[in-house]
Every structure is written in C-alpha cells, then in structure tokens.
C-alpha cells in the first residue's frame, strides 16, 4: 500500500498545531488527572498564568476538547472536563511521558 506523504504531512501539522505551545498538553494532563475547577487546574501547572489558562480553556472548548459547565450556585461554580474526543489523545500523552522519561535517562547517563 502506497503512503500519501502529502496527507501524512498535513495530519502531522494538524497534530503539531493541536499540541503546539507550551501549555496545551499540561492542561489536558491536568484535566485527565481529575482537576475540574479553574484554580485546581491552575495550581497543578507551575508557571501558567491565569490569563493563559483562560485562553487555553476557551480555545479547547471551541475545539471540542473541553466541556465547560456553569452551576448557578452562589458563588457561581464553573467546572471543566475533558470530552471523550480529548481523552482519545490520552494514549499519545502517555507515550510522550514514557518517551520523555527514557530520553532523560539516556541524556543523563551519557553525561555520567
């Protein structure tokens, strides 16, 4: 079966666009680890600003990766959760974590 390199490149570019940036994967990881409220997510990601997290969550909601639920309590409670579509990315993140750990070991061992 012949591979369509143009289509493969387009698919890779779409994936890189999706995971591009410093914060997208940490936000997804935080959500998939059970953090639902804005401050929980923010505290779980060292260095992220309130403004950047807000921007990421809005963008992810537009891209059907996050479901935002507003509860009309006093004070208003807002929760975020990953969509099933977002969860399909979980195996890729897991593989990236495994690869990153192995890569770090290889680099550290090379220096010793």
From TrEMBL:
SUPFAM superfamilies referenced in this protein's UniProt entry, alphabetically: Winged helix' DNA-binding domain
Keyword line: DNA-binding, Transcription, Transcription regulation
Entry keyword annotation includes Membrane: no
InterPro entries: HTH_HxlR, WH-like_DNA-bd_sf, WH_DNA-bd_sf
Tree of life domain: Bacteria
Signal peptide: none
Sequence ranges assigned to domain HTH hxlR-type in this UniProt record: 10-108
Endoplasmic reticulum in keyword set: no
Annotated protein name in UniProt: Winged helix-turn-helix transcriptional regulator
């Amino acid at each position: 079966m012949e591979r369509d390199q143009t289509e493969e490149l387009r698919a890779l570019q779409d994936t890189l666009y999706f995971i591009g940036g410093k914060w997208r994967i940490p936000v997804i990881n935080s959500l998939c680890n059970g953090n639902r409220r804005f401050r929980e997510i923010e505290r779980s990601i060292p260095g992220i600003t309130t403004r950047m997290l807000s921007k990421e969550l809005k963008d992810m909601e537009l891209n059907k990766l996050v479901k935002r639920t507003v509860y009309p309590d006093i004070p208003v409670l807002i929760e975020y959760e990953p969509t099933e579509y977002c969860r399909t990315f979980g195996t890729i993140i897991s593989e990236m974590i495994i690869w990153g750990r192995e890569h770090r070991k290889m680099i550290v061992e090379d220096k010793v």
